[in-house]
Amino acid sequence: MFALVLGGGGARGLAHLGFLLELEEHGLRPQLVAGTSMGAIVGGFYCAGQDLAKTCRVLAHLDLFSFFGLPRSYRAVVEQAAVASLLEKLRGRPWWELTAQRNARFLAFLRLFTKGQRFEELSPPLVAVACDLHRGEEVRLSVGPAYLGIGASAALPGLLGPIRWRDRWLIDGGVVNNLPIEAVADRAERVVAVDVAAPLGPPPTTLVEVVLRAYDITSRALQEHQIARARERLGERLLLVRPELPSLGLLDFHRLPEAVEAGRAAAQAVLSELRA
């Protein structure tokens, strides 16, 4: 039996759909799923019992950019958020109103696709990883409304506002743990971790891109350290999988078929190891 860890990566995380579809078709089912950001979203759909093939068809015909009011790049997201924040500050409006409408649509979307279930009802169980905005701590969510915990795990700064969870404000778990292997390390014989983190892109050409590059470098260094620590702890019990997604961007949701196929190919390459 194995636990499945699904990492964050925006649209690159759509590869998790293909990975899970391939596992399903070969009769392989994890006993536990942990996910961050898009990994938590896809993991939530799976654990809620969604038909993943049908989900892929629905998402392929859904214009996510129009539905959520998204720009076409994360750089544009940050630029728009900076300008909007300045204007709202001058007007004296609360900062959380900036993304209130987008947050509401996002949470309604997640509630629909998780069938309104609580974490306690999901099968297999799901652990969604988020970050406490005030304390800077990793938060593992496994009880309560699944859509809300998954939404918190995927609340990408600038794109979505922090999500209120009890007495905390939570943001995207990728800030502290983009591939949460440690969340399941003691709960399964083997751990299969699917890493969809993006490589560094072209050299930055604006100050905003420099800021984003600095964040990417820090995030990559933290993740590599966490993977190295997990390898030391788990040894051959850890199987790390990296789908081939060289040019897929954070918000390239229109390239879903390509991401799904990459996930399928990655799963096919390790089927013999998963059956062992």
Write structural notes for this entry:
This protein is of the alpha/beta class and about 280 residues long. The protein has 9 helices and 8 strands. It has helices at about 15-25, 40-45, 50-60, 65-70, 75-90, 100-115, 145-155, 205-235, 255-275, and strands at about 1-5, 30-35, 125-130, 140, 165, 170, 190-195, 240. Strands 1, 2, 3, 4, 5, 6, 7 and 8 form an 8-stranded mixed beta sheet that branches. α2 packs antiparallel against α7. It is globular. The chain starts with a strand and ends with a helix.
Which short descriptors sum up this protein?
single chain, alpha/beta, 276 residues, 9 helices
Q: Class by helix and strand content? A: alpha/beta
Sketch the major β-sheet: 8 strands, mixed
Query: Mean pLDDT score, rounded?
Result: 89
Radius of gyration: 18 Å
Total number of helices? 9
Roughly how many Å apart are the termini?
A: 10 Å
* Percent range for β-strand residues: 5-15%
Bin the helical content.
40-55%
- Give the low-confidence spans: none
Tell me the total number of β-strands. Answer: 8
- What is the N-to-C succession of helices and strands? EHEHHHHHEEHEEEHEH
Q: Note the overall shape.
A: globular
